[in-house]
Amino acid sequence: MSRSFDAIIVGAGQAGPALAGRLTAAGMQVALIERKLVGGTCVNTGCMPTKALVASAYAAHLARRAADFGVSTGAVGIDMKAVTARAHAVTMKARTGNETWLAGMKGMTFMRGHARFTGPRSITVNGETLCAPRIFLNVGGRASVPDMPGVKDIPYLDNTDIVALDVVPEHLVVVGGSYIGLEFAQMYRRFGAEVTVVERGERLIAREDPDISDAVRQILEDEGIAIRTGADCIGFARHERGVAVSVNCAAGEPAIIGSHVLLAVGRRPNTDDLGLDAAGIKTDARGYITVDDRLETNVEGVYALGDCNGRGAFTHTAYNDFEIVAANLLDGENRKVSERIAGYALYIDPPLGRVGLTEAHARARVRNPLVSVRPMTRVGRAVEKGETKGFMKIVADGDTRRILGAAFLGTGGDEAIHGVLDMMNVGASLDALRWAVPIHPTVSELIPTILLGLKPAPEH
Hints:
23% strand; FAD/NAD(P)-binding domain; 460 residues; 3 domains; 5-stranded parallel beta sheet; alpha/beta; 6-stranded antiparallel beta sheet; Enolase-like, domain 1
């Protein structure tokens, strides 16, 4: 015995509930299956709780700097249980809101359980078979734990564990010098922990230009965070004070003793227990579901959205996946993932807002790359706020007069970057943006000035 629907959605992350809303509004009967928590990574263990923690860490940092602004305060203390409770409250409000929305959605059947394919059009959940001509996978991802020496013998935290941590570690060792690791490194340093970041590569956030990596490293080191790059012998062993993390076989202290270890070395898709083989759905070597430009898999009528398809690793790209699928199926459009201009942010303080190509990628792709950089020390808003670390960079094509990318590392950088991102999305030339009249005093007002400073990229 089986039940039939017009569509089945597996996963209630960022794309799933929104897609269910569009499909049911179009008169379809939809089944939405979630095995764990409504809201996915963003609501429960990602963006919302971590940015709430970042906000608390920033408040502590600003309070310690109060005298810089002529404000007198007493000693700054951290109530980690209250900090964690605040972050949890932010999560619960969002999760409950999503659950209430789904409960009131007419035409939608919500089921809790683990879904597995039994064929290209059928799925089992809790012993029941569901069938539909269209199936949408929004199953997300989880922290990756590489098989490093000793990792199975020691207690460690991943991003899910650490958002629930209600004590300040004596010494937090963060393994992984990229986005997740660096955000937690800075926030826990501001909460009062000793922090060491261990990165196998030669520099932090290796996907960024070297000048960005160097500036981020300096920002973190200025706050007392120890950085160990080129860590070619990472391994773990139990120690009477916690965990001994071996780092480098050639230089520096060979091991770091930490009370807590955070593994932030990447993520993997939740695709290994969906029965994809039974449906004939293909994945790549890393387990990501292979999709075309319209997010359809090799099996007609089966789509993959969000982190599980390898075409984006952010909440906003997952939501855009929903928008693309809904526009194509319901609105007669022909939207493509390849048309998406990639933008993202690193939420250390000050934040890094990024869009498009790096300078290195621009050099490799165009004949006449142009670059312009302005330090935040010359940005009035940054000076007024007393937050002058970082710089703003724009990269363009001198032949087509198109903006290729930008990196704003500085106060408000995650917001100001949208002035560039939006113009890139509409295909505007840098000359058009140069004549914008932004509001003073803002960080964004510097964008036309930076464009005026574009020059041929110097040879490295």
